[in-house]
Write a structure and sequence with these properties.
This protein has about 475 residues and is an alpha+beta fold. It is built from 12 helices and 21 strands.
Length: about 475
């Protein structure tokens, strides 16, 4: 667990080294003043002005590098209404393809990382333009099954292997296994095979929508609100209408037909009526075969674990807090392990006070972004006074399932943690409240320092196993 004060001190030292001419000017001025030279005041003025810049520069850099959230970050822009299940994603735009291209679904059968080695290490790198730079966009090899035709038609699917650069904000669409793509018109091949499929072009923001990472709701002409997240057939039909109309603006995650052109709204209403006549089953969170698309282990990000804890923080009443991302927006800045995003979070204080929304620019690890279709939850550790919160990416990764959590019992048995993130959350809090650090995803209760917590941990595991068994029955 890093201390904010230590980070400030370290950055202050770096700033002094980087601005080495500033203290040197003060020393030169002092020497000139002792010698009685008239120009000594010039050196003092230069050194003084430079010294005044160092503290704010240090604080600004620390705020960008340290994921700390305070009251000053409370959300001020209330133009978008966020529900508890809302998630808005603004990703870099994709190539739009030709006007004749058809928008269809493609299932990801296999995926593997080909290349991702940006320069710069942990430094911040900023680019211009609307497209994600290749240097910070992982190259992924995928085997796709493209459904070339209407969703209800049995004919048309074909397999193709591609290598595409996937914007980090849309990696979860690959893990989920559902993409929105464009197919250019086929080209003649020969009498036996009259046409072969044309070029396949990915639509990454729409893929995040089709995969269910970004939520989607529709308000019809009568004012009724319908949830269409993870209804891929209806969403594809809506996407085609949107593409033909030149794009449809979403207010957060909502399309309001009452605000659209009447002709476009009528087409959307016809799709809704078609869905009501033949309701579509909600698609799974992730398509079968996720293990063949699992990119998390190949992507950069902080190692997942039950987390480190400072005994001083624990003794003074520090607690862990769960929060949830409501919005992520791409910026032009990147670090090696992930993009820098403008985020909106809903924080639920542990003391029972009402939740509040905060807006904060954060570097989000790619390993977490790859499972964003599963969860948008995040773990924070709160200061003992409750006035600030720090993002804990190690605990967040374990809660999100980037790594499997395991407990080794006092008698040496290995037990996978069942029951999902709620059980992991209980174990994290048990350890944190006792000031016990366990940065790995494996919790070994045979260790002597764990003897005081072993009983409570085993009881939590027994309760979770009973709950899972009851649910299965």
């Amino acid at each position: 667990m890093r201390s904010y004060g230590r980070v400030v001190t370290g950055n202050l030292g770096c700033a002094v080294i980087v601005c080495f001419p500033v203290p040197l000017a003060l020393l030169v001025g002092y020497g000139a003043w002792r010698a009685g030279d008239d120009w000594a005041w010039i050196a003092f003025a230069v050194g003084g002005a430079g010294s005044a810049v160092i503290p704010p520069m240090t604080l600004r850099f620390t705020r960008g590098a340290f994921p700390r959230i305070t009251r000053r970050d409370r959300l001020k822009d209330r133009s978008v209404s966020y529900g508890d299940d809302t998630f808005v994603l603004w990703a870099p735009r994709s190539e739009q393809g030709t006007a004749q291209a058809r928008l269809v679904r493609a299932d990801v059968l296999e995926a593997s990382l080909v290349h991702y080695e940006p320069e710069g290490g942990g430094t911040f790198t900023t680019y211009g333009g609307d497209l994600a730079p290749d240097e910070f966009t992982p190259l992924i090899r995928m085997r796709l099954r493209v459904h070339d035709g209407e969703e209800t038609e049995a004919s048309g699917p074909f397999d193709v292997t591609v290598q595409w650069r996937v914007p980090s904000l849309c990696l979860s669409a690959v893990t989920a296994g559902r993409l929105a793509v464009l197919i250019d018109p086929g080209r003649p091949a020969g009498p036996a095979d009259p046409r072969v499929p044309g070029r396949v072009v990915p639509l990454w923001p729409r893929s995040a929508l089709l995969a269910g990472t970004r939520t989607c709701r529709v308000i019809d002409l009568d004012g009724r609100l319908t949830q269409v997240t993870r209804h891929p057939v209806r969403q594809l039909r809506q996407m085609r209408i949107s593409r033909e109309a030149g794009g449809i603006e979403m207010a957060g995650d909502t399309i309001d037909l009452r605000r659209l052109d009447p002709a476009v709204a009528a087409r959307y209403a016809a799709v809704a009526e078609q869905d009501r006549a033949a309701p579509e089953d909600r698609a799974p969170v992730t398509e079968p075969g996720e293990e063949s698309r699992w990119l998390v282990d190949s992507l950069p990000g902080e190692a997942a674990g039950f987390g480190s804890v400072s005994r001083r923080w624990s003794r003074r009443g520090g607690v862990l807090v769960r929060a949830r991302f409501l919005q992520m927006t791409a910026t032009h800045t990147f670090q090696h392990h992930g993009p820098v995003l403008d985020t909106v979070l809903r924080i639920r204080p542990a003391d029972g006070t009402p939740p509040f929304d905060a807006a904060r620019r954060l570097t989000v690890p790619m390993s977490y972004l790859a499972v964003l279709h599963r969860t948008r939850e995040i773990v924070l550790y709160a200061a003992p006074n409750g006035r600030s919160f720090v993002v804990d990416w190690a605990r967040t990764g374990l809660l999100a399932g980037t790594t499997a959590a395991t407990v080794i019992t006092p008698d040496g048995r290995e037990l996978p943690v069942m029951g999902g993130p709620d059980v992991i959350w209980v174990l994290m809090n048990l350890l944190a409240s006792r000031g016990l650090s366990n940065p790995a995803p494996v919790l070994d209760l045979r260790e002597r320092r764990m003897s005081g917590a072993a009983g409570a941990v085993m009881e939590a595991l027994r309760n979770s196993a009973s709950a899972v068994g009851t649910h299965d029955r």
